[in-house]
Amino acid sequence: MRKVFILLSILFCFNFYAFSKGLPLSTEVTGDDYSWIKGRQMISINLNPGGAIFYPLLFNTAANNAVNLTSLIGVNLGDINKYFDYADAKGSAWYIPSIAYSLFVHKQIAIEVGIGVYSSTYNLTISKENAGKLLEALGQPDYGSVIATDTTFNASFMFMPSTFGVKFYGPKRQFYNAFRFGIDAFFYTVSTENGLTGIKTDHTIYDAALYVSYEIGWNIELFPTKEWKVKPTIDIALLEIGYYVRPWAENVYNTVTGGVTSLTSGFSAFNIPAWNSLPGWTRNIALNVRFALFPRIGFSLRF
């Protein structure tokens, strides 16, 4: 947490410096003292949906083509493949592009705050009829007559990232290095209904993860020779790398695997390892690293 406090202190100092100097927000600046202030504000829209869109697509592909995919890579999942033979799986998502506001406190230094909203859902249904067929495939045909209803798994996730950072620009204010402190707020619900055992589960979790990160990218002016009050730019970030100082993975893992265990009870239970049984480097390092290629593809308006 010490790193978090240090970063917040740096941001506060930059903010205090800007306003103690009495720097105006107006784009109409006269004189040469602060001529760089023209265009010192910027609103940025990041159109990259990130995992919110790609993970449901991956889920759809993997769940609906599990047998073919496992055969292709030479992996035998045993009874797990039989579930996908009789299940209907669907993932979907929506998002509100993240928006960030930047204020230049120096010709090459800007303070930035941003927020976005991302949501994804994952549904898996084994109909009452298919559940009977699944039991036969698993060698338990005698239990098919006691199935009362469909067997379902539903998970919905809403993710609201908020960021606070400092961006250091090159001489032409295009190439930048950004250092950020982020708060990832999670709201997710995992519910299941087992048509064989009649057991229903419903877990709603509110959580937040904290991280620090570094990003490198460009704000490319579309019309650099035009003296417009509002200038559009194309934003491209090459990569972002960071580390979660308050992790998120354990709660998500335990909630989802708990739902899967309840879903498969009475059929053929999955052998899912407990969180604490995972290798230490996975729990404490790998799952806490934040890494993305081209995390920002969008545009900005500088004014």
Q: Biggest β-sheet: count, sense, barrel?
A: 8 strands, antiparallel, barrel
> pLDDT under 50 segments (min length 5)?
1-22, 25-34
Structural class: alpha+beta
User: Nearest-angstrom radius of gyration?
Assistant: 25 Å
Order of helices and strands: HEHHHEEHEEEEHHEE
Q: What is the 3D form?
A: elongated
- Mean pLDDT, rounded to whole units? 84
- Number of continuous helical runs: 7
Instruction: Give the DSSP E fraction (strand runs of 2 or more residues).
Output: 35-45%
Helix share, percent: 25-40%
Strand order of the largest sheet: 1-2-3-4-5-6-7-9
Top keywords for this entry?
single chain; 303 residues; alpha+beta; eight-stranded antiparallel barrel; 9 strands; disordered N terminus
Written overview of the protein:
This protein has 303 residues and is an alpha+beta fold. 26% of the residues lie in helices and 43% in strands. It is built from seven helices and nine strands, in the order H-E-H-H-H-E-E-H-E-E-E-E-H-H-E-E. It has helices spanning 2-20, 51-64, 66-73, 79-86, 128-137, 249-264, 280-284, and strands at 41-46, 88-106, 109-126, 151-169, 175-193, 200-221, 231-246, 289-293, 297-302. The chain has an eight-stranded antiparallel β-barrel with strand order 1-2-3-4-5-6-7-9, surrounded by five helices. A hairpin with a 6-residue loop joins strand 5 and strand 6. Helix 4 (79-86) packs antiparallel against helix 5 (128-137). The longest helix has 19 residues, at 2-20. The two termini are 36 Å apart. Residues 1-22 and 25-34 have low confidence and may be disordered.
